[in-house]
Amino acid sequence: MNILKQLEKGIISQSAEETQEIARQLAAQVPVDHILTLRGDLGAGKTTFVKGLAEAWDIKEVITSPTYTLYTIYEGTRQLLHMDAYRMDNADAMENLMIDEFLKSPFCLAMEWPEKVEDWLPENAWHLYLEITPEHHHKLRLVC
User: Fold this and answer.
1) Residues with Cβ within 8 Å of residue 142, at least 6 apart in sequence
2) What's the domain count of the chain?
3) Is the pLDDT of residue 98 over 70?
4) Got the DSSP string for 53-120?
5) Which pTM was predicted?
6) Rounded distance, CA 75 to CA 90, Å?
7) 14-71: per-residue pLDDT in tens?
């Protein structure tokens, strides 16, 4: 079964390394110039997942949470814009950032806390749900 089908059903990850491996596998399936939202509580593995995407796209920089910078742009075989929308007030705030001016094809915009700017997101965005299970593992589920 391919990674998309597995993620649609849900995958349990038992470590950060497994979460990054899942992201590396998914990276090849993410359409060009696409938005991937990362939905989950603090500690659910959102930034860990982005680290796996970055590795798959040959990004050499250290990936960190963009909480205080709103977003960070990384260059590799694909441009990765890692964004944290937690402090955004609404979809209008996204327009004011002029994100589209910074994006270079092929890109992926990986957005944490997309709930804050839901109206800004295109209908074709993919939504990755990350949660911590009662056993303290991480569950990842993708909705395309």
Assistant:
1) 4, 7, 8, 26, 126, 127, 128, 129
2) 1
3) no
4) HHHHTT--SPP---TTTSEEEE-SSSEEEEEE-TT--SHHHHHHHTGGGT--SSEEEEEESGGGGGGG
5) 0.89
6) 28
7) 999 999 999 999 999 999 999 999 998 877 788 999 999 999 999 999 888 877 778 8
SS3 132: strand
Angle CA(127)–CA(128)–CA(131) in degrees, nearest 5?
135
3-state secondary structure of 134: coil
Q: Looking at the predicted structure, is the pLDDT value of residue 128 above 90? A: yes
For 116, the domain range is 3-143
The sheet with strand 34-39 has its strands ordered as 11-13, 138-143, 126-132, 34-39, 107-112, 79-84, 71-74
Q: Is 13 helix (H, G, I), strand (E, B) or coil?
A: strand
Give the CATH number of the domain where residue 48 resides. 3.40.50.300
